[in-house]
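A reminder from the course coordinator: this example appears on the midterm review sheet, so study it carefully.

Given structure:
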């Protein structure tokens, strides 16, 4: 664990062992089955209070965490930075110390600054889940992506991921590549030179992909124009439905800029897993919460 105290957290993929990933996977499969038949899961988080601290916009991730917490019977505090005392100049540390006095058991945090989740884990001493920090990591997205692929029927050695797009600013890529390395999944990062990422090692060149994973172009994190133009980007890096080999899986973490990272046809292919990723997300987050708290 990377926190300054003994509490278990999921701030980075580095916080999880290979065995932890397998434990989470088994639990996710179980929860997914229960959710699909609308069976009420055992309320293993009854009596626990979870604070969702979202300092940045989010649709999927915030709702997914909230649903996961509710499904397991937790009490929830939803904190939005825009409506908080941070606007009056309160420090993040003071905000966290106040939450702790109100007996919060776990914090889920999304923040535009890299390192925030690690900072809060160290200061609070309670479990923290990083729901995306700046350009650094987004571990639950990486886990849910991998589990979605495993559930699609591919064996680990058949999963060959070509990850394309704005790697430099993508925390999804940051966690994804770490996870693929950990579990031995072949992957090849492809991006315009201006938004490539320092290689983490373990990548394969000229991969014959079974999975096309396209990232969003993160204009809000680019401090200058880093791609020549939307049309050119789509032409060279976007997924065009009609050119995808039959049987190749298509993924995207959302939100999609249609016509840029991929066209609408690509999102609707039989092998598009984009909505499966959303479905798996709730079950995976339930598994993470149980893993840290129950
Ligand atoms: C990602 C994020 O916010 O990091 N989206 C998500 O969590 N579903 C990717 C993105 O914003 O491009």
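Designed residues:
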């Amino acid at each position: 664990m990377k926190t300054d105290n003994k509490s278990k957290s999921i701030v980075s993929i580095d916080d999880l062992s290979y065995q932890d990933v397998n434990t989470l996977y088994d639990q996710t499969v179980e929860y997914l089955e229960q959710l699909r038949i609308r069976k009420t899961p055992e309320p293993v988080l009854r009596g626990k209070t979870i604070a969702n601290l979202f300092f940045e916009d989010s649709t999927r991730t915030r709702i997914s965490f909230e649903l996961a917490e509710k499904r397991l019977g937790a009490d929830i505090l939803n904190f939005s930075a825009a409506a908080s005392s941070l606007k009056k100049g309160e420090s993040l540390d003071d905000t966290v110390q106040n939450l702790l006095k109100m007996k919060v058991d776990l914090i889920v945090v999304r923040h535009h600054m890299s390192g925030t989740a690690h900072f809060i884990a160290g200061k609070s001493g309670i479990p923290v889940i990083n729901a995306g920090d700046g350009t650094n990591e987004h571990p639950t997205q990486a886990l849910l992506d991998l589990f979605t692929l495993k559930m699609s029927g591919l064996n680990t050695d058949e999963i060959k991921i070509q990850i394309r797009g704005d790697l430099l600013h993508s925390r999804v890529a940051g966690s994804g590549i770490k996870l693929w390395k950990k579990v031995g999944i072949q992957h090849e990062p492809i991006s315009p030179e201006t938004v490539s990422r320092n290689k983490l090692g373990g990548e394969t060149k000229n991969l014959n992909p079974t999975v096309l994973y396209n990232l969003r172009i993160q204009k809000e994190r680019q401090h200058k124009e880093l791609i020549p133009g939307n049309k050119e980007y789509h032409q060279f890096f976007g997924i065009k439905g009609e050119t995808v080999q039959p049987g190749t899986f298509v993924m995207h973490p959302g939100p999609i800029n249609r016509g840029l990272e991929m066209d609408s046809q690509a999102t609707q292919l039989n092998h598009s897993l984009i909505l499966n990723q959303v479905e798996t997300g709730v079950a995976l987050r339930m598994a993470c919460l149980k893993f840290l708290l129950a």
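Residues 274-293 form the longest helix (20 residues). Confidence is low (pLDDT under 50) at residues 1-5.
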